[in-house]
Amino acid sequence: MTHGRIALLLATAAALAGCTVGPDHRIRTAEELGVPVGFSVPAAQTREDLTQWWTRFDDPLLQRLVASAADTNLDVAQAVARLRQARESLVQSRAQLLPTVNASGGYTRSQNLIGGTSTVVLPDGTVTDISRGNSSSFSAGASVAYQLGLFGEVRRSVEASRADYEASGYNYAALVISTQAEIARNYVLARAAQAQLGNALASLALQDDNLEIAGFRVQAGLVSSLDAEQARSQRAQTAASIPSIEASYNSAVSRLGVLTGQAPGALKAEMEAVRPIPKGPAQVGAGIPADVLRQRPDVLAAERGLAAATARIGVARAQLYPALRMTGNLATNAGSLGGLFDTVVGTLFGGVSQLIFDGGATRAQIRSNEAAAEGAFAAYKGTVLAALEDVEIALVALDTARARQRAFTVALDAANTTALLARLQYRSGLTDFITLNQAEASLLGARNGLVQAQSDEAAALVQLFLALGGGWDSSAPAPQAPQDR
After folding, report:
1. Distance between CA atoms of residues 184 and 471, nearest Å
2. What count of other Cβ atoms lies within 10 Å of the Cβ of residue 191?
3. How far is CA 323 from CA 319, 350, 466, in A?
4. How far apart are the first and last CA of the chain?
5. 3-class DSSP state for residue 147?
6. Which end of the chain is more exposed for a tag (fewer CB within 10 A), N or C?
7. For residue range 381-403, what is the model confidence (pLDDT) as tens digits?
């Protein structure tokens, strides 16, 4: 092949390499994804910076535990490993854009029995002289192979790998923020259990006092033993609730330890001091539904999944078109190392292959990839709508928890007054034990109801922060894998 023909071949290949078959991915609009203009529930339309939402709770320990999630949680560590795998897959795909170069070298030493003499003792004991000669040779060579993606199959493959890598980065971010929310939720559960345990112990102390008073009144003949039995029964029921509360507390604290990459009991000593349920901000701006497309890393991961699936249609479709592969070789051989490069022989070969018949396998692969892209779009749209659902559910949960909290605050005040009056009247003999028992049961119910409403408010705030993509900087690009050490 002459130099002119080689140049012509390369120019033609370069021109064809500009062709890329298959559809190009495009960003879908909010209308195409079914995103409404506004939420269907009341929401503040201001958009806030929620990258460190945990600092908006008035609890330093909660803030420290949540902030440590990215560094200590073992599920996050697995996500980092998957992100590194995706990065290396991208490196492998990019390598297809470059030629493959191999080199070889060799040294041979041969011994010729003709030429020269050598004394040899034969097996029968006789001695004879034979001729011998020595020679050495050195060789070196290199080969180059390059698969030209004439119709963009290599570039589409790189495009798909890049989208997969970015999707892995967004999945990593989604796992981090969900882990942060899980830590906060379990912390709230632990503090709520502490408050409920305090309520049960306070009621138990009152019921001990009631049991003693009922005993005195029975001994004095003022009431029947029914009062004492009712007092004993009520106390036993309250005492029976304490182990289950303690079990709930232990479960939440143990979960906190594991979520922060520690043994289940690692935080028990630190959590032992009783603290109130964390109080968050009075208002959180939810923005508008379209903001979810930018703020939620799981939504962005689904969009990148669609981009990868779209690129793979082009990879499959390019198999219907000709493929060009070029190879070249250089070789040299010499009897001495100094003359190794005196004579170098080279060859260059370009081959074109074209699919003729494969029983419809390639076209079936194209249709399969098109179906995968359609499924990826449905998954993307579903993720968007589920994200909007998360926001609205959290907004309603927050409003209802606050409404219940206001109602239980009034109920607790009334129950306190009722229980106090009932206790004074029972001591004075002006009412029966059933009235006192009902009043104190209402008091315990109001106390626990207020605790549950406060816990639900904190949990709803955490859920809202998570639904809005809090904990991740939506203005930043897809997270990158850390460099290997």
Report:
1. 12
2. 25
3. 8, 10, 49
4. 48
5. strand
6. C
7. 999 999 999 999 999 999 999 99
